[in-house]
Design brief:
This protein has about 400 residues and is α/β, with parallel strands linked by helices. The chain is built from 12 helices and 19 strands. Strands 1, 12, 13, 14, 15, 16, 17, 18 and 19 form a 9-stranded mixed sheet that branches. It has an 8-stranded parallel barrel with strand order 2-3-4-5-6-9-10-11, surrounded by 5 helices. Strands 7-8 form a two-stranded antiparallel ribbon. α5 packs across α7. The relative contact order is 0.17.
């Protein structure tokens, strides 16, 4: 029996009393992935990206481990909710225009001490000030650096369209603007190199493209390491007691951690290891988060149909954004239908061994987005469900 077949047998036994659709997290795999992230970080703390987890119980579990410290959140409303729930170090990874949430932040000393907001433009400070509603708490600020690689005099750009702050001088200018402004304090710098951390460099059947990605990433890592160090020096000249410099992601943990200028690493997807993280040479992990759909039809030889399953991930539309049939091994989509809204035909010889009511296990393309589809996660240890915990959705929150 293969390792995957053994996992399928465990998952089927553990959930035999539960009807699909359902979602699980294999805690043995989850914990092994967490340990591997800590190993790769080489002693630097890992800030957990909440968008890749979206479950308070699992955030608490991973933050109880040595090597993890703090949360990187994705909306201001989520940040305040987490802070009220007892998480005392929450870094908002994206600028916000949530005026009501800014008023809460500026009016509550506990929230203001726990949450750091992201800024890359003085206009964002104006919006925060206009939203205070009488609140006078000092707002903790993190400055985001644009990590994109610019070639041929800027005519070629590789990287996400995020912050407009690319040079050390630009970041230092905004740091000075914040330092001069009452009610704000610069606490840190963030730089997410998505073109390294979030792009697989070993694409099945595409050796030339894989090599081109590796060459691009090697160039990008060298350029960013030098520029990030210059940015940190420039900002420390303005803010000598800077608390943190955050960088990286699941796909770049060990590379980013090797930079002296970086004090902490961000990672989250590496805990669940969704399908988009199968294509990396820098690490390998164990899929820990899966969802099951029930077989409801047997249209013919080599075909079964499961209920639902069309849960595409965000990003540029493409086949790699669809979930992938994972267990039993050997199932594939009908190219004419793909993953469907209310039913999904699956082809392959394993279909002939599946009965009405059996479960087919899928992996989502991206990590935490799976939790937007399910209100609970069944936590599996060995071949038993040992706990059932709510996702953000299950607690009544869909922040974005």
């Amino acid at each position: 029996m293969t390792a995957r077949a053994a996992d399928r047998a465990r998952y089927d036994r553990a959930t035999a009393h539960l009807d699909a659709p359902l979602a699980i997290v294999d805690l043995e795999a989850f914990d092994a992935n967490a340990a591997d992230l800590v190993r790769r970080a080489g002693g630097k703390p890992i800030r957990v990206a909440s968008k890749s987890v979206r479950c308070r119980a699992l955030l608490e579990r991973v933050l109880a481990r040595d090597g993890f410290a703090g949360i990187m959140s994705f909306t201001l409303a989520e940040s305040l909710w987490l802070a009220r729930s007892g998480f005392d170090d929450v870094l908002l990874a994206y600028p916000s225009a949530d005026r009501a949430a800014y008023a809460e932040l500026a009016g509550d000393p506990k929230l203001a001490a726990a949450v750091t907001v992201m800024v890359d433009d003085v206009a964002q400070l104006d919006l925060i000030d206009a939203s205070r509603g009488g609140g006078r708490e000092v707002v903790r600020v993190c400055l985001e650096l644009d990590t994109s690689l610019k070639l041929l005099g800027g005519r070629v750009r590789v990287g996400a369209l995020r912050s407009p702050l690319h040079s050390p001088a630009q970041v230092a200018d905004v740091a000075r603007a914040v330092a001069r402004r009452p009610g704000f304090e610069v606490m840190g710098i963030m730089a997410y190199e998505g073109h390294v951390a979030g792009v697989g460099d070993s694409l099945a059947g595409r050796p030339l493209r894989s090599r081109a990605i590796r060459l691009m990433q090697a160039t990008a890592k060298r350029e960013l390491a030098a520029r990030r160090a210059e940015v940190v020096r420039a900002v420390r000249a303005v803010v000598p007691d800077l608390e943190f410099v955050n960088g990286g992601g699941t796909g770049s943990v060990q590379h980013t951690a090797a930079e002296d200028a970086v004090t902490e690493i961000a990672a989250g997807s590496g805990l669940y290891v969704p399908r988009l993280f199968d294509n990396y040479t820098s690490f390998s992990g164990r899929p820990s988060a899966l969802f099951a759909m029930p077989v409801v039809r047997r249209p013919g030889v080599g075909v079964v149909t499961v209920l639902g399953g069309g849960y595409p991930a965000s990003g540029a539309a493409g086949a790699d954004r669809s979930p992938v049939p994972y267990l039993p091994e050997g199932l594939r989509y009908d190219p004419q239908e793909g993953a469907g809204e209310v039913q999904t035909p699956l082809l392959g010889s394993p279909a002939d061994d599946l009965l009405i009511g059996d479960k087919v296990w899928f992996r989502h393309a991206k990590a935490g987005e799976l939790c937007e589809r399910f209100d609970t996660l069944h936590l599996i240890e060995g071949d038993a469900v040992t706990a059932t915990v709510p996702t953000y959705r299950g607690e009544g929150h869909t922040f974005l």
